[in-house]
Amino acid sequence: APAPPPARHLFSDPAEVEVLRGNLLAWYDRCKRDLPWRALAATEPDADRRGYAVWVSEIMLQQTQVATVIDYYNRWMQKWPTLQALAQASLEEVNELWAGLGYYSRGKRLQEAARKVVSELAGQLPRTAEDLQKLLPGVGRYTAGAIASISYGQATGVVDGNVVRVLCRLRCIGADSSSPSVIDRLWDMANVLVDRSRPGDFNQALMELGATVCVPKAPLCGECPVKQHCQAWRRKLFGKPPPVPDVEDCGECVGDCPLCPPATEPWDSSLGVTNFPRKAAKKPPRAMRTATCVLERRGCHGAPEYLIVQRPSSGLLAGLWEFPSLPLAQDLQEKKEREELADHLQAWMGRPVAAKGLQFIGEVIHIFSHIHQTYVVYSLHLDRDVTLDPALSPSRWVTEEEFHASAVSTAMKKV
């Protein structure tokens, strides 16, 4: 069995925990940001509406900054103020509102879960983190804990990226913070720390601290309400711990401590508290090239129209609309790219397309979380209508205004 972590990594002193809770909540009451989902959760008397509001905000905030989410959240809640209203919406409507927010499967899963609540759970959200995670698709451990604590007052902790950073600094946890064993320890700590009388506020305070003070680079340690509990801050002030650790303590890289930094990555005094957290090196994003053709015709009122097609219902950018596109092998010559794209369009339109008729426009680079995507953009003007094979993919002609109102990705808007 792996060695247990020494006491220095844990919150084992009830008196310290009580002081930390009080200081953090007092700071939160003074300094919290005015965010629309917080206001709604604080004033909405109906528990299910409160839970729905928090749920939507937490799904949107996954992998997305607060400043970006606010406008999307307000428009979403205006369009679908209740879970029942969302359940009646179409996926196309959801994708249209979500367009530009990224990670599009989030909106799809949110709607699927809303329909399940209405059809299988009598329209009532589960009240505990355990049931929320078990019964709702797309709701993981963190989202379930956030909904249950903020909306229903369950005394359960939460661990997101901000909380990972705060806890790793508070307790000098230098092992890989993305490893399952460390994540489990952090959840244990979050559940110990959470305030039993104000669990939702405490969890939001911990996340707020990581988002606004204990930030990844240049943290504002002087403004931190819990710095006296922070071992990384003390380490920065007083230097390296003594070479011989106490019985209940451990120095850097001594023994088999599962939470200390590895011996190959000692404390770097120039980094201070930003020595923590530590993560395994990310894999470089996969490079992909895609040929994209903007087909244009003159509409019935003289304005240009553009052809868009719908992507498959699963996979990357599922169900969104795009200009006709074709994945390319790496290192193809431009002539070969043109030929492959022309063949693709020809099979689609059922009439010859000359490769030399494709006008090269340029390249657009878009970074997905795991893909470095290059779109090689061509255009083709059509002097007459074309009949498309409906078996290949849903398609439609749109004006520029209709294009921007459709469920299209940010990458296609760049194109």
What attributes does this structure have?
415 residues; alpha+beta; Endonuclease III, domain 1; seven-stranded mixed sheet; 43% helix; 12% strand; 8-oxo-7,8-dihydroguanine DNA N-glycosylase activity; Adenine DNA glycosylase
Give a short summary of the structure:
With 415 residues, this protein is α+β, with helices and mostly antiparallel strands.
- Portion in strands: 5-15%
- Name the CATH superfamily assignment of the largest domain: Hypothetical protein, domain 2
The H/E string reads HHHHHHHHHHHHHEEEEHEEEHH
Helix content: 40-55%
What's the CATH topology label of the largest domain? Endonuclease III, domain 1
The description of the largest β-sheet is: 7 strands, mixed
Number of domains as seen in the coordinates: 2
- Report the principal-axis shape: globular
Structure description:
The protein has 415 residues and is of the alpha+beta class. The protein has 2 domains: 7-275, Hypothetical protein, domain 2 (Endonuclease III, domain 1); 286-405, Nucleoside Triphosphate Pyrophosphohydrolase (Alpha-Beta Complex). Helix content is 43%, strand content 12%. It is built from 16 helices and 7 strands. It has helices spanning 14-31, 36-43, 47-61, 66-79, 83-88, 91-98, 105-120, 129-135, 141-152, 161-170, 180-193, 199-212, 231-238, 334-349, 400-405, 410-414, and strands at 286-298, 304-310, 321-322, 325-328, 359-367, 371-381, 395-398. Strands 1, 2, 3, 4, 5, 6 and 7 form a 7-stranded mixed β-sheet that branches. Helix 1 (14-31) crosses helix 12 (199-212), helix 9 (141-152) crosses helix 12 and helix 10 (161-170) packs across helix 11. The longest helix is centred in the N-terminal third of the chain and has 18 residues, at 14-31.
